[in-house]
Amino acid sequence: MFTLRTLPYALEALEPHMSAKTLEFHYGKHHQAYVDNLNKLIDGTEMADMSLEDIIKLSNKQEDKKAIFNNAAQVYNHNIFWDCLRPANTNMEVPAALLTLINRDFGSLEKMLAEFKLAAMTHFGSGWAWLVKEGDKLKIIKTANADTAILYGVTPLLALDIWEHSYYLDYQNRRADFIDAVFTNLLNWDFAAKNAGL
Ligand code: MN
């Protein structure tokens, strides 16, 4: 059985860029529901004692396990997402070793963020945009609905939730404003650097 992970900050810590109200629903209702649904779906099955990663891999593209995949992958994606954010306007500096890789693979931090934003903006419907490490190289990818970066042989460094429930309470349909606010004020670069093995 899985439990909802704890948040590494208070519900209001991301304000004004992401409101406590958004976290109450996004973390407290949506993320919780994915955990609860997954538990119900795997109860009494061979998956009941498996790791989240194993459940995701085993249910991926299995027509009869679609609900299990969707809920398991969304639990996993949100587990990462909360760690990709940090309290507003704290530790904003990109660690030097990560910045070196970003400059090498994208030209500059601004160019990487522009590509990240473009991926998030051009994704139609619900999904995720990611900064990932593939081998030694950083790249931007996006996945649809619950689909998750870990199925593509890459290590996620940063995940951005672009489901409407991620921004609608604070930004309504203005996805670009939400992305800009997260990029400018909330990205946890230390978490990204740690995931990159730096
Ligand atoms: Mn979400």
Helix/strand layout:
Blueprint: H1 20-42, H2 52-59, H3 66-83, H4 96-106, H5 109-122, E1 127-134, E2 137-144, E3 155-161, H6 168-171, H7 175-185, H8 189-195
Antiparallel strand pairs: 1-2, 1-3
Helix pairs in contact: 1-3, 2-3, 5-7
This protein binds manganese (II) ion.
Residues 26, 30, 78, 161, 163, 165-166 line the site of manganese (II) ion.
Task: Describe the protein.
With 198 residues, the protein is mainly alpha-helical. The chain contains eight helices and three strands. It folds into two domains: 19-83, Helix Hairpins (Orthogonal Bundle); 96-195, minor pseudopilin epsh fold (3-Layer(bab) Sandwich), CATH 3.55.40. The protein has helices at 20-42, 52-59, 66-83, 96-106, 109-122, 168-171, 175-185, 189-195; strands at residues 127-134, 137-144, 155-161. A three-stranded antiparallel sheet has the order 2-1-3. Strand 1 and strand 2 form a beta hairpin. Helix 2 (52-59) crosses helix 3 (66-83). Bound molecules: manganese (II) ion. Manganese (II) ion binds next to helix 1.
Q: Summarize this, please?
A:
With 198 residues, the protein is mainly α.
Q: State the end-to-end distance.
A: 32 Å
Tally of individual domains = 2
SSE ordering: HHHHHEEEHHH
Let me know the average pLDDT: 97
Strand fraction equals 5-15%
Rg, please? 17 Å
CATH-derived topology of the largest domain = minor pseudopilin epsh fold
Helix content: 40-55%
Poorly predicted spans: none
The CATH class label of the largest domain is Alpha Beta
Q: Which overall shape is indicated by the principal axes computed on the Cα atoms? A: globular
Overall CATH architecture of the largest domain: 3-Layer(bab) Sandwich
Q: What structural class do the secondary elements suggest?
A: mainly alpha
CATH H-level superfamily title of the largest domain? Iron/manganese superoxide dismutase, C-terminal domain
